[in-house]
Structures are given as structure tokens and as C-alpha cells.
## 1
Amino acid sequence: MRKNIYTTAVFLTVIATLILMVGCTNLKQVPVESHYYTIEYDPPRPIKAEPLPYVVKIEQFQTSPLYNSNRIVFKNEDFTRDEYIYHKWRAYPGELVSFFLSRDFSETGRFQATLYYESSLPYTYLITGVVEDFYLQAGDFGEAVLSVAMNLVDNTRHGKGNFVLMQKKYRLSVESGIVGPSGLAKAMSTAMQQLSAEILDDVSTVLENR
């Protein structure tokens, strides 16, 4: 009887020791660090021309439900979207596109003034939009895919409601060279730079004829 009690006590002691060891091991595990990425490229040079006499406000763009997150999304095959858990953008796609578009419009000096979406100052024209695609197309080299639907709205028709002067969709694909978040960030920066230049050119053309 005493032998059975002793054996049971030893067994329970070993089990308790193992549980404590596992618990201590878990406590000592270092949490995985998240990595954050952003779009980065040089702003355009100022345009050597008289600015157009308009104040343009750029609203914060909305983001498609598929990409309305700061996690980096990639596509391996049709009808699927996956996310990197520990690799994220510094902001949501709509926020990134709106910010860099506003910055570039302002840097060129093409208009009398460019207002960020938070501004309460009066404006003559408003740019709104939706980021429809913002992801890494997986493959041998990978591609950054960026697509935006944009509207240019006339805000000068006081009492008559706003009027859409232009509505256009833009889609760009830029090879990343490296499949992964770092390659995507570089390629997406190139895509954003091209997108910004195209939108600026289109808006300028429309407003030059007003």
C-alpha cells in the first residue's frame, strides 16, 4: 500500500514538473515582430507655368472591402486572397493613395491651392475615389496591382448640386522582381507614382478648358 502511494506521489510530482517547464518555456518565447511598409518615392517637380485659378480638394479615398485593412494582401490564384500576418502597411490603401495624390498635386503647383481631405477651407473642385485593387500578384517575379476609380466633381454650382466633370478608372501593374512584402512596397511605390502623374495630367486637361 505504501509503495503504491509513493509511486503515485512520484508520478504526480513528475507531471507537475513537466507542466511548470512547459509553462516557463511559453513565457520565455519572444513574440514575433511585425514589419511595416509604406509607399515611398520623390515628389514631382514644380510645373513651370501659371497655376490654374482653382482650389482642388482631394477627399480621402474609400477602399474596396477586399483590401480594407493594413495587412499586405497577395493573390496566388483566381478567387483567392491571402494576407501576410506579420507584414503590414503603415496605413489603409485608401489613406495612402489619398495622401500621396494630395502631396503630388501640391508639389507641382499646378493649381492655386490643393487641400487635404481634413481641410475645412472652401474649394472649387473635389476629387473622390475608391481603391479597387491593392495587392501582390504572386508568380515568378510578382506584380504590384493598383487600380482606382476616380471622380472629378464641380463644386461651383451653388444651389444646383454638384456635377461630375470626369469619371475614370486607372489600373497599373508593376513587376516587383522579388516576391514578398519588400518587393511589393517598391513596386507599389512605382505604381502610385505613375497613377498620380496620370490623374494630375487628366485633371489638368479638363480644368484647362473650363
Note: The helical segments are 2-28, 93-108, 181-208.
## 2
Amino acid sequence: MKHYLKAAVVAVLFAAAALSPAQAGVIVGTTDTNPNHSNSAPFGSLQSRFFYQQVYDDSAFSGALNINQLTFYNKVLPGGSPVPGPFQIYLQTTAQQVGAIAVNFPDVSGATLVFDGAIPALSGGRLDFSLSQSYNYDPSLGNLLLIVRDFNFGSPASPMFLDSDTTNTVTSSRQYAGPNGPSGNLKTGLITGFNDVVAVPEPSSWAIAIFGLAGIGFLAYRRRSKFSPAAA
């Protein structure tokens, strides 16, 4: 019986690890909890903008990262409607610094196009972009630059506001209103997740957990029955 009990316990521990909502990746920025500081650009309200840039300091990354998902957060001022798109998103290693993004209009010729399409649905306070092209970022080579290009002009009736960084030391952004010259304004950057993927348990993990719990329950019942005092 000891062997059965041991196997059941191992099954439960294994399944618990598989079922835990573990997250991986990097989240850059410290969330500003003031709702008035949330940012509707670039996905919640276009404001006739053509381009949006955001730079992330290399110190925010502990090492090289193969980026295949970008996440932006809608938790401080939840709700609203994102602009449907289409959008293009580019990533690039850059010498540009946080708080000092160039006013020149963005040049995407040296950047990697990682997303091209309609915006994903807002779910659970998250806007998750699954990238069509992963990007290998090495922080030892410089900071990381995000470029967003929109092809719409207008805003939804109820704009969506995304969480922004409160420090302006690890990330900052700049918006551009026209294609032919320096323009735009410097702002705090959006809190951004890189590969911040919430694990979804596989059906087999649930099956193992149920089997293990059932096994422990059965063995406990057998043990209790075996040592129950006889009726008088």
C-alpha cells in the first residue's frame, strides 16, 4: 500500500506544478496607479497619429530573450474598446535612450516586422499580441525599440486606456502626428510584457490531478476502515 500512496502523492505534486498559473518572461515598468496617467495611444485612441515609438532600457532584461508575445495591460482604468486596426508592430535594437527618443519621424527600414493585422481582443485586463515573427533581443547590444504603425484615423466611442510606467527610467514613448517631419510628444511608456504567457493546463494534467487525489482519498478510506474499532 505504501507504494500506491507514494505514487498518488507524486501524481498530485506533478499535477499541482502543471496546474499552477506560472508566468514566464519579463514585464517592463512600474505601474502608475493614477487613472489619469493611463495612456490611450496607440491602441485605444488613435488621435490621428501615424506612428508610435517606445524604447526599453537594456537594464530591464537579465539576458537575451526570444520575443514571441507582447502584452499590454488594462487594469488601472479597465474597460473601453481598442481600435480594431490594422496595425504593424516592429522591434529593433537601438542606441536611442529612455526619455530622449529622437523627434525625427520613425524609419522602419532596419526594424523587424513582428505583427501585421487586427488588434487582439481585450481579455482579463490584457492585450496579448502573438507575434507572427519572433525577435531575438540581446540587451548587451543596446536598448529595445518598439514601433507601432496604425492605418486608421479616429477613435472608438469608449477609448481603451493602457497602464503606463510611473518612473520614466526604464521606458518612455513618443507619438508622431504626420509623415513628413519632426513632430509628436514625449510621454511615459506603456507597461509591457515580453513573453508574459499565462500557462493553460493541459487536459492530461487535470486527469493526473484527479487520479492522484482520488487515489489518496481511497487509500485514506481503506486505512480508516482497516483500523476502525469493531462495533460493540
Note: The longest helix spans residues 203-226.
## 3
Amino acid sequence: MSSIGFFQTLQIVAESQQNRAVNFLGALFQFAWYAVVAVIVAMIALMLVRFILNYADLNPFSRPVIFVRRLTDPFVNPVRRALMGYGIQANGAPLVVVLLTILVGAFAWMLVSSFLNTLAGCVYSLMSGKPGGIIAFLGYVLYGLLALYSLLIMIRIIFSWGRLDYHNRVMRYLMNATDPILIPLRQIIPPLGMFDISPIVAFIIIWLFQSAIALTLLRGWPLAFFA
């Protein structure tokens, strides 16, 4: 076998392994999508059953009612307390739980999607055998980290609307992760009345860095593998 044929064989093997790895990540992508949708549908079904049982005049100590309440109370009771803290009637707590489940599911899906697309880009760049693969690998890592950071800022904004403070474990993590960029921006850019625009400026800065990475380190490489 000539040296040219040998290297062509190596390239075919590398491309085959690359395709298998990306296809595996694509299967994980589909599985994650179905899992998120299944959780949302299950929560909607539970809240619907709870609503029906509440207005069906059934014995509150019957087995079906107790079973459904045990499943749903851990989600409904915190929302009910939060609504009462805002002076809002707690009757709509199940509906708020459904809306929050959809919102959290969307955030979870964006996290998984960003991670799998970044991982696919890293695998594709390392196994492609193309010139500049290592540079593209670094570009995919940086691009994915910036997308994740932008998502963390967005989640912090949504959680802050629910009056979560530093004592909450999730909010504490979000604040520790995003304060390094938001606090300096607040010191430079004053709020517009009661509105803090530092997150908007942070989003613009992150977008500019991502655009710079796409135009330099990832020029000629795909930015998304799954949608």
C-alpha cells in the first residue's frame, strides 16, 4: 500500500469515528428533548388531576386525593406561599406551577442544547483532521462558555423577580457566578430609574465576544450541530 493510500485510509477511519461521535451526541440531544417535554407534560397532567379532584367534591381523605396531594404539594405549597406574600390569592398556584415548569424546562433545554452543541463542536474539530482543528476546538470551548454565562445571567434575572435572595442556594450560585461582570457594569452604568440595565449591557458584550470568536477562531466551522 502506498503512503497516499495509507493516509487516505486513516482519513476515512477518522471521519467514520467523527460521524459516530456526532451521531451519538445527536441521539442524546433528541433524548434530552423528549425528557424535558415528558416532565412538562407530566406536571401539566398532575396539576390538571389536582384541579379536577379539588372541584369534584370527593372525600379529601380518600386514597386518590391523598396520593395526588402528596405528589403535587411539594410544588404547589411554595408557590402558594409566594403568591400570598405578594398579596395574590393562592387559588392560581397550580397554574403558576405549570408556567414555572415550562420556564424551567426551557432553561434546562437551553443548557443541555448549549452543552451538547459545544461538545459536538469540540469532537468535530479534534477528529476532522482539518488544518486549524485545535484553534477551532478552543473557539468552540470559548463560544460555549459564553453562551452558558449568558444563560446564567438570564436565569438570575428571572429568579430575582421571584424575590429570591442570597440565602437561596441556587440564587447564591447565580450571584457568585454573574456578579464579577454585573457589579463593575453597575458601577460604570447608572440605572435608568428603577431599572438596572447592567444585564442588557452584559448580553451585548457577550454577543460581541461570540461574534468575534465566530469570525476568527470558528471561521469556516459550523456554529450549531443540533437545533
Note: The two ends are 42 Å apart (CA to CA).
## 4
Amino acid sequence: MDESVAVDGDSFRHVGDRLVHQGHIWHVAVASFVGPDGTKFERDVVRSPGAVAAVPLLFDAEGNASVVLVRQYRSPYDDFLIEIPAGTRDVADEPTEITASRELVEEVGLLAGRLEPLIQFYPSAGMTDSVLHLFVATDLEVVDHERHGPEEQHMEVLRLPFDEALAMVERGEIHDAKTIIGLLLVARKLERGDLGPMPRGGAAGSGAP
């Protein structure tokens, strides 16, 4: 039977956490809450430092946009997924822009001359407190990548026309939420003319993967 306690106002209140599992980055807790009517209840919560992701956008000499994606193995699904470059905020207090820039270099060997915030969103609000910080990366320069772990070592880097990447979303070939959100937001910006070629002494994206 649910227990009830007196609560002021009409809000929910987080009382505390009981650690169930401590992982390398995330931990699982049983979190205790009190509802607006005083009912006490518990929920399993994955506590996370959050993550970053970036849509790497390139332009040819004619101004046609392309995007760099990765195809990598994801163990929870035991399958390969097509995604934008992303990573966990595993360096304490590191600004999200720095983390996103580092992930672009590590995964796809691209250094962003410009990194513009798109949105912050909750990727799975029913189970984790993770916040994902999403960017669009332009003015890209090719550098050496620095991949870590077996998934990244065996990932495939894809450069696709931006319109084709959108078509893959519509055909159900891209399943990853952050990638779908990022591509659709960038599509809106391109339609409004908010993004465009930004060459580094030449056509942007020349020599990119």
C-alpha cells in the first residue's frame, strides 16, 4: 500500500536516491519521491552526466550540402546504427562545445571552425536524467581521428548528400533519435538560409571524408 505524507503545494518532490549499481560512467538508483497528494513512491533512474552530438555539415563549390555520419555497432540493440558523431560528457565540468568538438575529431577526423548550438533535449525522460546537447558543425577541417574502443575502431564513416540523409529518415533507415532530431533541425535552418558554405581558403569540405 502506498504511504502518504503531508506536502505543501501541488508539486512532486524528490526525497533521495538509493544506489543500486555504480558503472564506469552511469549509475542506477532507486529514487524516492512524494506526489502532490502526499503519496510516496519509487522509480528506477539511470543517473547520467549527459551527452553531446553534432551534425557535421559540408558544402561543395556549388553550395550543395552534405553530412558526415557514422555507422557503428550499438551493444544494447546488438546491431549497427547510422548516427551523427556523439559522445558522453565524461570529462567533469568540460564545456559542452569542447566535448562536441573533441568527439568530432575522435570519431570522424573533423575539426569544426564553427559549432552552433541547436537544442538541448531529454533523450529518454522515463528512465534517465540525461540531457543531450546538440550542435551543428560547419567550416570543417580534416585532421587525424583518435578513435577509442572496439565500436569506434570498427565504425564506418559516411559522407552523404544532405537530402539523401533526410530521405533515409523518412524511409525508416535511420533509427537513432538524436540523429533524426539533428537532421530535421538543420533542414529547417537550411530552408531559412541560416546556414551556408563557409570555406577555409577554398570550397568548404574539400578533402573531407
Note: The helical segments are 96-108, 149-153, 162-170, 177-192.
